[in-house]
Write a structure and sequence with these properties.
The complex is a heterodimer of chains A (about 110) and B (about 110). Chain A contains no helices and eleven strands. With about 110 residues, chain A is mainly beta. Chain B is built from no helices and eleven strands. Chain B starts with a strand and ends with a strand. In chain B, the strands form two sheets. In chain B, strands 2, 4, 5, 6, 9, 10 and 11 form a seven-stranded mixed beta sheet that branches. Classes of the chains: A mainly beta (about 110), B mainly beta (about 110).
């Protein structure tokens, strides 16, 4: 089955700097790659997703890139703000069923 | 639109007891899933369903049963609770093209 590895497990950046979180997946048949943000004590919330027919997708300060050949995808957050502090999860699946998550990255934005 | 509703929010069980975690969605989503979240382990898929009458196992199915008799409901049954099942349980639903929405979670403690 699918296996998703996520790095780093913790990330600390200065406010205004960029943050990058990377994930690798094992199943070449996977074609759906969402990213979720989870604040302390809250439910995970979808922030952006990408499908395998697209190499990059942007939404304001957030972007995701996908390299199907290398089987990895990344989340980029620019101009970080204190409210970006949270745990971020990547995930992968074939056709959006059986979504498998990475272990998560705790992002801290330092003022 | 209530989204994904989980009950109860908190539960304490004794070892060997059984119980059902309830999940209902009102968005007419085809896909529904159950995850457990443990510290440092991310979100692990227990069972999932791609439609009424269709269920399948995820990464950690042992000790849990599911059924999906309607599009709206996807209950998770713990057959004989064990301390290892102490966790936060999340139900999620999505359309077939993705975009899972999570419920608010059930915090379960087995003593």
């Amino acid at each position: 089955g699918e296996n998703v590895e996520q790095h780093p497990s913790t990330l600390s950046v200065q406010e205004g700097d960029s943050a990058v979180i990377k994930c690798t997946y094992s199943d070449s048949a996977s074609n759906y790659f969402p990213w979720y943000k989870q604040e302390l004590g809250k439910r995970p919330q979808l922030i952006i997703d990408i499908r395998s027919n697209v190499g990059e997708k942007k939404d304001q300060r957030i972007a995701v890139t996908l390299n199907k050949t290398a089987k990895h995808f990344s989340l980029h957050i620019t101009e970080t703000q204190p409210e970006d502090s949270a745990v971020y999860f990547c995930a992968a699946s074939k056709g959006a069923q059986k979504l498998v998550f990475g272990q998560g990255t705790r992002l801290t934005i330092n003022p | 639109n209530a989204g994904v509703t989980q009950t109860p929010k908190f539960q304490v069980l004794k070892t060997g007891q059984s119980m059902t975690l309830q999940c209902a969605q009102d968005m007419n989503h085809e896909y529904m899933s159950w995850y457990r979240q443990d510290p440092g382990m991310g979100l692990r898929l227990i069972h999932y369903s791609v439609g009424a009458g269709i269920t399948d196992q995820g990464e950690v199915p042992n000790g849990y049963n599911v059924s999906r008799s309607t599009t709206e409901d996807f209950p998770l049954r713990l057959l004989s609770a064990a301390p290892s099942q102490t966790s936060v349980y999340f139900c999620a639903s999505s359309y077939s093209w993705g975009g899972y929405t999570f419920g608010s979670g059930t915090r379960l403690t087995v003593v």
